[in-house]
Design goal:
Elements lengths: L32 H10 L5 H7 L4 E6 L14 H13 L3 E2 L2 H10 L7 E8 L2 H13 L4 E5 L1 H5 L5 H12 L3 E6 L2 E6 L3 H16 L3 H15 L16 H9 L3 E4 L12 H18 L6 E3 L7 H9 L4 E3 L24 E2 L4 H9 L1 H12 L2
Helix pairs in contact: 1-13, 3-5, 3-13, 7-8, 7-9, 11-12
């Protein structure tokens, strides 16, 4: 039970892809003044080297999704905050490296001589690159974007965006759906209740088999009396392949993120194989230097997925498990190269610097010491 177009009413985009938002993201909400002050101290240029000395040979993979689009009332990362973080990373001599270089170092065990950070982005929304491309170029920071190739081709658009679109276009204060014996209620009476209902609906859909998820979305559209367009409306729109090739010429990197962005463990064997292989083949066909690393949609994977990635000729895969991979501890022996952890890019430059410094690896030790 579940307890944008021109008339967009919700004040932010859904957080199903890992963007921290005012009501979930980091599920505790926005960064408080006190939290930011503590993070600023712990990540300062005088204190952070201590974390790096303790948590050495670490690399921090950071993943971004959407950036704020005020004109569309889309919540997302703050471009100004990203600029501050990159300026600090460069000034404090962090090593900003690409995904393939980092994976190669991890596999070969050559390690990381300096504190190292890898920036990635998932999905392939046009709006996201529009707002951050010049920032990454200004600081000569590699960015790898993992593309949902069916989205780029215009043959599909994201399921969570479709749920949002249906609810916002319905113009109703609530929607009640009878689906496979379950009564689904979505309260659309205010911005807050709409946001909560959409988040609950999307979280619930993550647990469904992929074909059942799409049946629910069709059922929701029928109840709402909303015709879902075949291609994404403007503010949900993807990059085009020509735009991607131009970004590649400017120094950006691109890898596969499946064809339709399903929760892979919720798909049957044939679909899972097709999603991975066809996405990689499409990226190879369109680009000069495709990155041979896959990003699992929503970070969801299992033993079947790691085997399929390896069989597809890919050299690695990234997850959304927040941790530091390290060659020193042989984290990437065997198939573990196909489950590389990544941190979600946080709400503030101070928290980004804390992750980059290696603090997340020693925080449990500090907490245990403080509890004595």
């Amino acid at each position: 039970m579940l307890d944008k177009t021109d008339n967009l009413r919700v004040s932010r985009h859904l957080n199903v892809s890992g963007i921290p938002g005012p009501m979930d993201g980091n599920p505790h909400g926005p960064v408080t003044t006190a939290k930011r002050a503590i993070a600023r101290t712990l990540s300062s240029r005088w204190v952070a080297p201590a974390w790096a000395a303790i948590a050495r040979d670490r690399v921090a993979f950071l993943t971004l999704h959407r950036f704020a689009e005020p004109e569309n009332r889309v919540y997302g990362h703050d471009p100004a905050g990203l600029r501050v973080a990159l300026e600090r990373l460069r000034r404090e001599r962090y090593d900003l490296i690409g995904v393939e270089e980092a994976v190669h170092r991890l596999i070969e065990g050559t390690g990381f001589r300096r504190r190292s950070v890898v920036f990635t982005m998932d999905d392939g929304y046009r709006g996201a690159l529009d707002r951050c491309a010049d920032i990454f170029l200004a600081y000569d920071c590699p960015l790898t974007v993992f593309l949902t190739t069916g989205f780029i081709d215009g043959t599909c658009w994201f399921w969570w965006d479709q749920i949002e679109y249906i609810c916002l276009m319905s113009g109703r204060r609530s929607l009640d759906v009878e689906f496979d014996g379950e009564a689904i209620h979505l309260d659309l009476s205010s911005d807050r209740t709409t946001t909560l209902s959409l988040l609950e609906a999307c979280d619930w859909c993550k647990s469904l088999a992929d074909d059942r998820k799409w049946r629910f979305i069709r059922c929701l559209a029928q109840v709402a009396e909303v015709a879902v367009p075949d291609q994404a409306p403007t503010h949900y729109a993807p990059l085009s392949w020509s735009e991607i090739r131009e970004l590649e010429r400017r120094g950006f990197f691109f890898g596969p993120h499946t064809v339709t962005h399903p929760i892979l463990p919720q798909t049957h064997d044939e679909q899972a194989e097709r999603e991975i292989k066809d996405s990689w083949s499409r990226v190879q066909l369109e680009l000069q230097r495709p990155v041979s690393v896959l990003s699992y949609p929503n970070g969801a994977y299992g033993a079947r997925e790691t085997k399929l990635v390896a069989a597809s000729g890919l050299t690695g895969a990234v997850t959304t498990r927040p941790a530091y991979p390290t060659s020193a501890s042989n984290d990437l022996g065997g198939d573990l190269r196909f489950e590389i952890p990544r941190f979600s890019y946080p709400e503030s430059p101070e928290l980004a610097m804390l992750i980059a410094s290696g603090f997340r690896d020693i925080r449990p030790t500090l907490n245990a010491f403080a509890a004595r």
